UniProtKB/TrEMBL annotation:
Membrane-spanning parts: 21-45, 57-81, 93-115, 135-154, 166-185, 191-215, 236-260, 266-294, 306-330, 336-359, 371-397, 403-422
Keywords, in A-Z order: Membrane, Transmembrane, Transmembrane helix
Natural source organism: Rhizobium brockwellii
Keyword Ion transport among record annotations: no
UniProt protein name: Oligosaccharide flippase family protein
Keyword Chaperone annotated: no
Domain of life: Bacteria
Amino acid sequence: MMTVSAAVAKVRSLLRNQAVLLLNAGMLGLGTLMTAILGFVYWWFAARSFSAEAVGLAAAAISLMNLLANLGEVGLGPFLMGEIGRRKRAGPFLTGALLASFSASIVVGLIYLVIAASTSTQLGSIVGSSATDLFFVAGCALTAVTLVLDQALVGLLRSGFQLARNVVFAASKLLLLIALGLTLGRATSELAIFATWFAGQLVSLVVVAGLLVYAGRRVFHRPEIRAFHPVLGQVFGHHTLSMAVQAPALLLPFVVTVMLSAEINAAFYAAWTVLNVALLVPASLASVLFAIALREPELFPSRLRLSLGLSMLVCAATALAFLFLSRFMLWIFNPAYAVIAGNGLQFLGVAAFGMALKYHYLAVQRVRRRLGFATLVLIGGAVLEIVAAAGGAQFGIAGTANFWVIAVSLEGLLLCPALYWATRRAATPSTTAPPAVAGVSTYGNSLDETDQIGIASRA
């Protein structure tokens, strides 16, 4: 039988071995916890102050903006998460990535507007006039910049700056929403809610720039673009893989709005917000797991087991909370939401298991450089999720939610064998090292060579 002293020694050894993972995941977790709490208050106040239609349309527009921003960042965020920590001069590299993502997201936003002009959706009140079109595109570009910046900070293991940016973003948009709600009341439109989101992102970037200057770091560098040329294949591989994971979650509020109604989406998005709070834990763990695996591949299996174990505990608590408290959660936002959705969302929490497995599968395949096969698998899963959610809409909100949960759960089960073998086999340098290309350093760099900046909470 293990003595108390032996157990304490074992715990200390575990904490020492996993210090990098736990510290940075802890910073991410703290940041996402703070933003989740403030985000909950944000949508609670919106639900209490604005009409269900305005909230539903704003939520769908914000989800669409995030989807277009993820398309526009063209994989630079995930790529930097794994690469930037090994570069001696990260500033110019990061500046080039921010400039590229800003430009690409503007193009993506304009393409969407051209497509939307020939169709008719319930989002026309936000992105359907010349006065708001440019505002929407600017929101896409600004969001893309924050996505790349946050993920670069994780790669540099400087999650403190990421923590600051996300807390400032969450707090400032909440304060702006409260100011609008108190001054304009229920006459405020969905565009006002969208505007607070945009302004919050802008304020957070200004604050982070000020913190960097205060810390004695340069904020503006001459952008380095040529360094990306030899690794464009890797960048787009990361991008395709990321979109396969994120697209269904970002599209779901849009699907609910179009297939059902903005009012129903208001209730759905309230539950969706709570689910994403729980998903921030496995998402943060998987992100840091990928960021540090390339530096210490021999510890990857043990860290993966720890990350999966912690994630499954959070998922179990989430599933139980939704099963017994879903209507109460909706009632907290707005009593009308509990009436709109009823018990239709009580199984939504079960999806946390499948989503957590997807996050970790994504990290495993990135570490092992198996992007092509993983992309095909996850694209198939993404199509299944969207088709299931749209097909379930004929049975109302319960059908949409439950069909999507079934699709995500099946997808997670199919990924389990790959995750099991990853927990048993070390990620050797031959499986984690990239091809030798100009402008990309080897994986031998130490933690001392990390340089600047942290990941947006959207898990």
